[in-house]
Design goal:
The complex is a heterotrimer of chains A (about 180), B (about 100) and C (about 90). Chain A is mainly alpha-helical and about 180 residues long. Chain A has helices at about 10-30, 40-55, 65-95, 115-125, 150-165, and strands at about 100-105, 130-135, 140-145. Chain B has one domain (about 5-95). Classes of the chains: A mainly alpha (about 180), B mainly alpha (about 100), C mainly alpha (about 90).
Chain lengths: ~180, ~100, ~90
């Protein structure tokens, strides 16, 4: 999946990226100025400068997002982050404060920096899990509020959703004796 | 019932839910036993609280562009909040701060 | 219907004041940083609510800036509190 095309990118591709990014930044500009037409005199040049800088600094297109996967991911994310907030609110407000925290080590199957960052951030918003750090050897350390058996299986499911977002396939899961 | 009435009551209900999550997040920040558990409370509950407040405000917004802008702000808070959460947890782990665990066995 | 908004603003400020307890007690600098993160998210919510109450749209831009600054404060805190020994 990781292509080393950063140095050999064609002029045509650079122009294409420049146009796409100018449009994207321009759209954000229109949004934050609440479509004030007078502000376009500033916004259009700024969008072009921003796009030119981003093409110069990051000429590869960011890991391409897979559209149907993105829609499924958005639904999954909204439901799960709601459940995550509800779960932590219940624990905080319950007089007994049910907590059984632990750090678990999750062996990553997902490759690539971009997808892994999305995975780590997603995990932090889902019920009871929080990305603590990346360890060497493709392992993510996750802090959990409630250390139960299915934690690793839950994380594997999240990883599959993130893989779907990028249209990637994961190797089949091997449930080892990691703790 | 006019749209005004529906939007008014709907947004009021959403504000109540949002306020509940902000409150729960702060209670977690006060009650939870260590940095990691408190991070859970902050990251999840407060982002969700903001989501409900933003949705309530979106019902009352005067134009579509304002609705999109409100959700853009929420998206930025979610992404930066989750990233900041990772940075703080990572730094705390890196400094050797051990997570609190329940005494047992 | 601004009453609901005003009540919401007061409740958000009340929850922020709970965060002051964590600044007072600590025990570590990181715990105090968590309160700053709480102020960031609550500050965005409060500013957006005030924008709706007052009808001043520019307050939404302020909320946007709060959202972006929140990330920078966390990054600079982590860099300063733990230095650059491992990165």
């Amino acid at each position: 999946m990781s292509q080393q095309t950063a140095t050999t990118i064609s002029r045509r591709e650079r122009i294409r990226l420049f146009v796409l990014r100018t449009l994207a930044l321009g759209a954000i500009w229109v949004l934050i100025t609440e479509a004030d037409p007078g502000s376009l005199a500033v916004g259009v040049p700024l969008a072009m400068i921003g796009a030119a800088l981003s093409v110069a600094l990051q000429p590869r297109s960011l890991s391409a997002v897979h559209l149907p996967g993105a829609v499924r991911f958005a639904g999954f994310f909204l439901v799960q982050s709601f459940l995550g907030g509800l779960d932590v609110a219940r624990r905080a407000l319950s007089p007994a404060m049910p907590l059984d925290p632990a750090c678990v080590r999750y062996p990553l199957r997902l490759a690539g920096d971009g997808p892994r960052v999305v995975l780590a951030n997603t995990i932090s918003l889902l019920p009871g899990t929080l990305s603590a750090r990346f360890l060497g050897g493709d392992t993510l350390e996750v802090h959990v509020l409630d250390n139960h058996e299915s934690v690793l299986a839950d994380l594997a499911q999240v990883e599959e959703r993130v893989a779907g977002l990028f249209g990637a396939n994961l190797p089949p899961l091997q449930m080892g004796g990691d703790s | 019932m006019t749209w005004e009435t529906i939007a008014g009551w709907g947004s009021t209900a959403l504000f109540a839910v949002g306020a509940f999550f902000f409150f729960a997040g702060s209670v977690g920040l006060v009650r939870f036993p260590d940095v990691y558990t408190r991070l859970h409370a902050l990251t999840k509950a407060d982002n969700l609280g903001l989501g409900f407040v933003v949705t309530g405000l979106a019902l009352r917004a005067e134009s579509w562009i304002v609705v999109l802008k409100l959700y853009l702000i929420w998206l930025i808070v979610i992404v930066t909040g989750a990233t900041a959460c990772y940075l703080v947890a990572n730094a705390a782990r890196g400094s050797g701060l051990e997570p609190w665990t329940r005494e047992r066995r | 219907m601004t009453l609901a908004l005003e009540v919401l603003a007061v409740v958000i400020m009340a929850t922020v004041s709970l965060g002051i307890y964590r600044i007072e007690r600590g025990p570590t600098g990181t715990d105090r940083m968590l309160s700053a993160m709480l102020f960031g998210t609550s500050g965005v919510a409060l500013t957006l609510v005030l924008a709706e109450i007052t009808g001043i749209g520019a307050l939404r831009d302020m909320a946007l800036v709060f959202a972006l600054l929140g990330a920078l404060t966390s990054v600079s805190f982590v860099k300063r509190a733990w230095g650059a020994e491992d990165r």
